[in-house]
Structures are given as structure tokens and as C-alpha cells.
Amino acid sequence: MTRGLVVVAVTAATLALAGCGDDGGGGGGSSPEQGATKDAKQAPTLDAAKGAKGEITMCAGKDTSGALTDAIKRFNADQGPDGVKVKKFELAADATEVRNQFIQRAQAKSPDCDVLQSDIIWTAEFAQQGWIMDLSDYANARKDEFIPSTLSSYDYDGKLWGLPQVTGAGLLYRRSDQVADAPATWQELYAEGAKDDGFAYQGAPYEGLTCNFVELSSAAGGTILSEDGKKAEFDSPENLEALQLMVDGMKSGGAVKASRTFMEEPARMAFEAGKATFMRNWSYAYALDLKAKQLKGKLAVTPLPSFEGGGKGGVLGGNGPVLSAYSKNPKGALLFIDHITSPETLELNMSKFSLPSVLNATYDAPSVKKAVPYAAQLKAAIEAAKARPVSPVYPHISQAIYNNVNAALSGQKSPEDALKQGQAEIKKALTAF
Fold first, then answer.
1. Phi and psi at residue 108, in whole multiples of 5°?
2. Cα Rg, the chain, nearest whole Å
3. Using alpha carbons only, what angle is made at residue 178 by residues 173 and 183, rounded to the nearest 5 degrees?
4. Roughly what angle, to the nearest 10 degrees, separates helices 394-409 and 415-430?
5. What are the residues whose beta carbons fall under 8 Å from the beta carbon of 210, sequence distance 6 or more?
6. What are the tens digits of pLDDT across the range 166-184?
7. Burial label, 316 (beta-carbon count in 10 A; 0-12, 13-18, 19+)
């Protein structure tokens, strides 16, 4: 097994927790209200930043993989004795606490963090509050380099507030000895699951279930909010079709019934123990599944299926750098952002540290293809994925989704009642801003 496949077990698990295992965030995607950020500070251009000096601080969660430490070391060496010097400040291991600590500093207008490694679901909240700089000029100059879905995560109010660096999307894992070919649709997946040992996924009432539901809903053509972000669209025929399929799967055995209590790791352990034919999980599970005796020679990984009568869907996880509005050295900070999102760094991050890249070119690199043999499937999943609902009150919206979807999966509410209740809760949340 390559070093990259070993490291992915830790690094991508961190991505899973940051991207869809945490409910403290904002959003990503189109804007709920144009002009909401008209007084935002503008980040410097790359040309203006060249020749910057001084120090900057990169704030982030725990650097489990070592990729950030490596990037800082290389940047400082490249800058030489007279250039910008970066120091790392690990705020916390838990994503929610990272957000809380950054907010405390931002509310105090503290310059402690020049750059923050920000979860994609925090974008709307941080931009709305004026805590981060508008990076549109720099980001738009590079937009063709990025997988479009990943860059959209930093689009709010018609501006780009950061750059994606690490990404991820849900994948379908399959016992190839039980089902030779990947199911083409979600309906086929549940039907095949009922014939064998079922489908394991993240169905507990937490952010992971929001991701799982939106993957299915988006494929069915459903949405959570209107395009302008002002109206709740949770209670819709498309979402009912998606939720009904999930509920019926619980009753038919198409899904593993314990999935309604599963987070990422319980789902993985059930799959590796031979208690599920299919599993939805992030890319981190691949390296661990390879070591499972029950799956030896029987593991297959593909993008998520389409929805019959609809299309493909998915949800993005991930994070990337944003520039604090209170930085005293924004030019130096921009130079570092340019470094840690560069093709060189992201190719190294994926081939050496197995962090899924946001750049199209990375997936064609021989070093990446060798270290991450499922790279093509991963890229296809990322391309099909969508940002979660954009709103400064995203935590409340997500809570309305996962609590009510879980209630339907557990038989406490009908799918119709779950969507109606969730719709009411989302409408109430939207009145808060």
C-alpha cells in the first residue's frame, strides 16, 4: 500500500468532520441578498502584494496530516531572509471550536489571525459580518484552474471570499462479490440492497444526515432554499420523493436499519464487518476498507448514483483560506494564500498527504494517479457535488433538516409531516437576518 493511501485514513477523516460532521457554520454558493456586503474590505491584488515583508499568522485546526506545516516550511524557505514569514497557530482540534475562537477574535477586531483555514459552510456568516476580506479580484483571475463546484463554495453576495484548498464529496462503496456492477440510480441501489445486506449511511441527527439528504434531494431536483436564499423550499414534491425513498428503504431492508443512528465511523465499521452491501462515505474510508479482511478483493468505489427521473447530485465538504478583515499585513497574507492554493502545493498535498485537490490539473498528475488510485472517481463526485444551503443562519437550517429527516427515518413522523415541520423551522430561522 502506498504512503498516500495510509495517510488518507487520518487526513480525509479530518476533512469529513470539517465538511459534514459539524453544524456550526454559514454556507456557500449564491447570495441571499445582493448588497449585503457592500462595505466589505477589499483584499490586495497579487501584483500589489509582490515584495511584501513582515510576519503573518495562519490560524487553523489541528494539522493532523502535516500538510500545512510542510506548506509553511516551504513558503518561508522560498521567501528568504527578507520576505514574508508565516507562523502557524492551531486554534483547536474540533471544527466548531475553531469557528468559535475565530469569531471571538473577529468580534474584538483582533489581528491575531491574518489567514484562517475556513470550513466552506462558514463563508456566508463571516462575509455577512464583515470579518473577512473580499478576494474576488485575485480569485476571479484564477477561476479557470478550479473545479467549478469547489470555487462556488466561496461565492456569496456576488463576491468570492476565499479559495478552496481541500475538498471532498460522498462516494458509494460496494461489495463487488455481492453486486458486480454499480447501481445506476438510487432506486436500484435500494432495490439491490434489499436483496443482500443493505445500504449503510450517515442517518443520525447531525450535520452528516443533512449531507446525505441533500445528496439525494439534489439528484431528485429538490432544493432547500430558493435561489436568492430568501425562501424555504424544503417542503417540495422533489424532496418528498427523496425522503420517501429513504423511509421506504428503512422498511424494505434496502437500507441498514441502524443507519438512522450511524455517523461516518459506525457506517464504515458495519460495512467492513460484512453487515452492509453498500456504504456512502467520504474518501478517507478507502484506505481503511482496503485493510479489512471481509473486503479483501471485493471492494469497489464509484460516484453516487443518479435519481430516476432526475439527475446526479452531491454535497461538497472541504475548507480553504480566507483573509481576515483585521489583518495588519494583508499583502503578505495574500502571498501565502497564493502559495497554499498553488498547483505545486495541491499536487503535493494529494500525492503525499492524500488531501483531495480543488484544481482540475491535479488529477492528471502521475504522482496523484499513483498515490490515489480512485482519483478519477473522486473527481467525478466532486464535479457533481453542490454547496449546502447558503445563509448566515445555516446552523439552524441544517438542524431543521437533520432532525426532521431523522424523525421520518425513525418512524416518528411521516415524510409529509417531517417536511412540513422542517419548512416551518427554516422559515422561522430565515426571519433572523
1. -90, 5
2. 21
3. 55
4. 170
5. 20, 23, 388, 398, 401, 402, 405
6. 998 999 999 999 999 999 9
7. buried
